Amino acid sequence: MDNLVKEETINKKLNRRETYKARQTPYEYYVKEFDSLDFDSLGEGDRYYLQDFGIFNTNFLEDEFTIRLRNGNGGHFSSNEFILLAEIIQEYDLTLVITARAGFQLHDVTSENIVAIWQRLNSSKLTTWQSFGDNIRNIVSDVYDGVGKYAQIEVSSLIKEMNAYILEHPKYVGMLPRRVSIGISGNSANVSSFFANDIYFALAKKEHQYGFNVYMGGKNSEVAKDADIFLLKEEVLAFFQAFVETFYTHGSRFSRSKTRLIYLIEDIGFEKLKELIVLEYKKPLHSAGEIVLEYAEFQEFEQLKNGRYSFCYQTKFGKLESDEIIKIAQFAKENTLEIRVGIDQNIYLLGLQEPKTTLISPAKSATVVACAGNLCPYAVWSIKEETAYLPLEKIQEHNIKVGFSGCAKGCGRHRHTDIGLIGLKTNNFGDTEGGARVFVGAEYFDGKSVGRELFSMVPFVHLHQVISLIITLFEQSSYKNFQLYTKHILNHYSAEFLSLWYLYNLKHNTEKPLPKNTSLQSPQAEKTLLEASFEDVIFIEDNFKKSANSLAKELWTVAGADHKYKPPIKRVKFR
Q: What topology does CATH give the domain 2-291?
């Protein structure tokens, strides 16, 4: 363990999780103690270690467990694997959720059954190893990898090699300073953005050769930045191995809040990090090529390169019932289809001869990513049910990406979508059952920016009305998708101004669109625009944020009744 602590920081205190690692590595723990564990009386250390093998439990819900499966094949699953999952869910009365990293979580596992379920999963081709904890997490890609019309480089073989490297090295099991999320795509357009990853290998071109530009430092609240590195396909695995060793050796193991890759980059800079990687990589790195990335919208049926079709089965916001899983698996087997799971939490069936199927999706969820909700002890609200407060038909009609997280950890990637939401509890608005923090302004598809906070809290009973207004003003613009609207309209105004603009529209029951601008507004110009556009505009201490908070309380303090969205009494168009 000596190599885990740098000499210059020897006197710093390791964070709590690192102290357990220093006493015993997770792999040693597994070999010596796993078979004799009493799952009814786990200690803090047990809970830390068990995460590295896909088992999650908390001291305040000590009788309930979650098992997470690792997806070792870039989202590809066989029909037999699907059937096995369905059988386990039925037998033990479990709840299955697709994660935002294209994996599966089994909830409602009891201490009585945890070992039997875990062993059954890991004795098959499925694995739970290193799906939680301080590990390389699911390595994700686009569901149309190698087969879609935008595919240039197939990467599933690379993902298999990277996963094999991690799983075959006990040294790395749970022993990284913090989790690392990795995305890789050889497609010029993707169903979902990958800039929220710690590392993103993005399709690029240099000197007439396709390869990958490397982006680093992303997380749920940050976009990964250009590391100025270009790799050919055959160089990716060696670079990945060099990175893992570098982060293992040089990542911080002290304050837990500062152990992600982004903080190592902030501490030593990109150039120093690349120097350290080169020491392991053992050859020079090449500067970045030109990224090959475009915005595209994907339909329920998509034609593939070979002339066949894919079908997107929209899950109930990531939740799957056992009978659904069996139907999907049987349909795939009967029609010789490939099953892939996307980080949009939907199931894709590839290889249809015609764009039609007997399967019926249970929800309009193609562009909505939601965390596990109250199935997770950290989430405040039942996200699967609270999506009823969203105007789902409008969201689907315009392919608007929505990310819904149950807490600030951000598993719903709420700051990497067109409209982002965090479920919250509050009594600031009277008798309300809760609400959501709202974000807009993310230019996520090309990694330009994350979303900005629009409202710190909107009671659920008003959320449908607020999101509907945001979409209505977008519809009035001339832009064909919300990303263009964000770039050319929303991000030319301050978030505080936008808050007031929406609030005054709500107050006066109007739908005044945001004027188009070619430059950012100054605070004074924004104030003048508000006063010219709405009656009774009041500024508290000349402060936009205080003014918005005051108006929000005036409009949204409720007694618990659900307010449905109503058409406005009058429409006012700007020219």
A: Sulfite Reductase Hemoprotein; domain 1 (3.30.413)
DSSP states of 239-260 = HHHHHHHHHHHHS--SSGGG-S
Tokens describing residue 412: 């719903």
d(CA 457, CA 549): 9
Give me the sheet containing 309-313, strands edge to edge: 76-77, 338-341, 347-352, 309-313, 301-303
Q: Where are the domains of the chain?
A: 2-291, 301-352, 368-556
368-556 matches 2-291 in CATH topology: yes
Distance CA 350, CA 342 (A): 12
Arithmetic mean of pLDDT over the chain: 93
pLDDT of residue 429: 86
Query: Which range (97-106, 241-250, 383-392) has the least confidence?
Result: 383-392
Q: Beta strand pairing status for 61-69 and 55-58? A: antiparallel
pTM of the model as a whole = 0.94
* Other Cβ atoms within 10 Å of 535 Cβ, number: 8
Dist CA 511 CA 491 (whole Å): 19
What gap in Å lies between CA 369 and CA 402, rounded to an integer? 6
Across the strands, what pairs with 230?
A: 213, 286
**How many residues belong to the chain?**
575
Helix (H, G, I), strand (E, B) or coil at 369: strand
Residue 566 pLDDT class (50, 70, 90 cuts): very low
* Run of H or E residues at 211: strand 209-216
Residue type, 285: L
- Hey, what CATH class is 368-556 in? alpha beta
Beta bridge partners of 397: none
Sorted by sequence, the CB contacts under 8 Å of residue 284 that are 6+ apart come out as 278
| CA atoms of 239 and 236, how far apart (whole Å) | 5
DSSP letters of 173-189?
A: TTTSSS-EEEEEE-BSS
Alpha helices in 43-130 (DSSP H): 44-51, 79-92, 114-122
Q: Which residues pair with 219 in a beta bridge?
A: 222
pLDDT of the residue at 10: 52
- Give the least confident one: 295-309, 310-324, 366-380: 366-380
